[in-house]
Amino acid sequence: MTTNTLSVLVSASSNMEGPLSKWTNMVHGWQYRWFKIENDTLLYYTSREKMLKGQQRGQIRLSGAVVGIDGENNSLFTITVEGKTFHMQGRDLRERNQWVRILENSIRASSGYAKNGSIGTTPAQHFKQKTEEASEFLKTLVDKVKELEQLKNGERVADEKKTIDSLIAASNNLTNNVKHAIIYLQMAQARLDPNMKTEKLMFTHPDLDEKPSSRVGTVSDSTQTSSHPSSNTEKPISGIQHLDHLKPHRAESYASSDEEEFYDADEELIDLDKFENEKSGPESGDSERCTDAGIMSSDEDGYDFGDSHEDFDEIYNNAEEHDIGNVQQEHGSVLMHLLSQVSVGMDLTKVTLPTFILERRSLLEMYADFFAHPDLFIATNGIDTPEKRMISVVRYYLNAFYAARKSGVAKKPYNAILGETFRCRYTVPNSSLSGKKTESGPWPGSDEKQLTFIAEQVSHHPPISAFYAEMPSEGISFNAHIYTKSSFLGLSIGVASIGEGVLTLHNYGDEQYTITFPSGYGRSIMSTPWFEFGGKVKVECEKTGYYADIEFLTKPFFGGKPHRIQGTICREGVKKPILTVRGEWNGTMYAKPPNGDEYVFVDVKSKPEVKKECIPVMQQGKRESRRLWRHVTAALLRNRIQTATTSKRFIEQRQRQEAKERLENGEKWTPLLFETTDKEGEWMYKQKLGVRNTL
């Protein structure tokens, strides 16, 4: 692309223009097109010359559209509107991002939800502007209702009067909705400036002091205008004299350079839990809604979650998850609120996602499911050649993901809180226990022939989980740390798993296999979400020189199957791979040697997962996952979303309070089970095999 083209590309956002490749179904290929943004429309032409002549090829309406990026391809992006998806391709990452940013701004402007904090506008100014706009709209509504009432008082036939009555009733309902909107805006403005007097925020209108009885179809509620005649004092349009009791309690802001910092409420960019609860009413069987102020001043143990009769162990044994359903149809307001607040590529660390997307387990327990086939985990022990051991490790690795993401539902586990732990153990099928018990390790007192697992959330910012598994009798262990970084991709949410795991064969001179992890993607968040893995990973043994390069392939834009993988197993110094692998990570994978036939390498559905053993929920420590999240888990199973949200907030608020107290006392959080090493970013289990003195 020439310098002149680039200068056109970065022109004013309101009239941006430049070349892109557009996928056309007619020829099933990429075609050069010249694009130009005008107001709320993206126009395109076959060339710039055609644009100058006004010979338009087509156009894409931007109002209500959504821009999406692929996450695995740096130049592709999509525009989805009215059920149609248009595929575009820039020259490189920079060019794609330029178009995405400008298109997002145009879409927000044309759709009426310009992002807060636009250039030149502070959040306080933005809220004031919106409140003034709502006030003007309310005045217009009141005037229109008056006109309707005057029409009714004239000489009208019965049918006309009935129609006018219906219009007045509908207008009054709309008026009440606008009143509520103004209240929310005033609450938001109060949150931005906690020192201001809420009464001063209220815009007034002298005509809102009429008696409710004079309005046909007026709904009586707490926001209804008082029937007392007005004096010369103007009345708040909300119909409420004071909003101080609605004003959110502002948690004190604090900051720390420590990695364990827990964001307080004011640092969150957007809280969709709160938005969802404010939009919905009480649910059948739900506990009385608890405000943030109530949570801050209450003890979770003294709160009635309505689950005292539940068998929490049985609830956790029920691992079946259901689809979220069509998000746009069932949770459209939450979705639009999200789209109005985030940008493509934005880090979602500070975004509190709504409770209805949670699956009923902690992230730490999800990592435990990587070991749901303990027989494959230990199968490498006893193999005599380095080549076969590498193949065995890769087989275990590729088999592990299905158990962890078996449902395929695009829900996310609970975000583990700082200091949270999870432990469990597995018994190898068709094996006999030795009777020899461990004295330390993840679960002291377990048989040496059981696989034991322990995980701990060692950092909150950034969110890092560390976990460790071992089987002492086989001399095998696995230590890993993963930093999860989530990003908004428009039509998808991507979660990068940054970190690595190390599988150690202690009986082979501490032969180690370093393993990385793929990214996860929640796709189609505008409709019915689904999950897939994507990205390149590596399994490498430095001691033997063997390594594997594996790619989790995301579903192509145009046709093709999801969930595919492809890879090779190689040896340093040898040009040809010793094995090529292909297939689907949630189905069957095949392997082929250079001079042999292809065979089934892994069939993830050929045998069931081994059930994990855990200490009964109420016998666990208060920081252990299942006990910590039990109220959330029970409420989600019974579809009591507000109760689940309340319990979740108790957990999060306690974390904020603890972080604040540590800061005030000059204390630093120290993980209980894991510690850092000389290698940057690495966390190691303190009592791993080969280090501790006892079994």
Descriptive report:
One of its GO terms (molecular function) is lipid binding. With 695 residues, the protein is α+β, with helices and mostly antiparallel strands. 28% of the residues lie in helices and 24% in strands. Strands 12, 13, 14, 15, 16, 17, 18, 19, 20, 21, 22, 23 and 24 form a 13-stranded antiparallel beta sheet that branches. Strands 4-3-2-1-7-6-5 form a seven-stranded antiparallel beta sheet. Strand 23 and strand 24 form a beta hairpin. The radius of gyration is 30 Å and the shape is globular. It starts with a helix and ends in a 10-residue tail after the last strand.
The shape is globular
- Give the tally of β-strands: 26
The percent of residues in helical segments reads 25-40%
Q: Compute the average pLDDT.
A: 80
First CA to last CA: what distance? Answer: 65 Å
The count of helical stretches stands at 16
Structural class assignment: alpha+beta
Rg for CA atoms: 30 Å
% residues in beta strands: 15-25%
Question: Residue ranges: pLDDT <50 for 5 or more in a row?
Answer: 1-8, 116-120, 196-270
Largest sheet: 13 strands, antiparallel
Domain PH: 13-108
Biased composition (Basic and acidic residues): 273-291
InterPro entries: OSBP_sf, Oxysterol-bd, Oxysterol-bd_CS, PH-like_dom_sf, PH_domain
Protein name: Oxysterol-binding protein
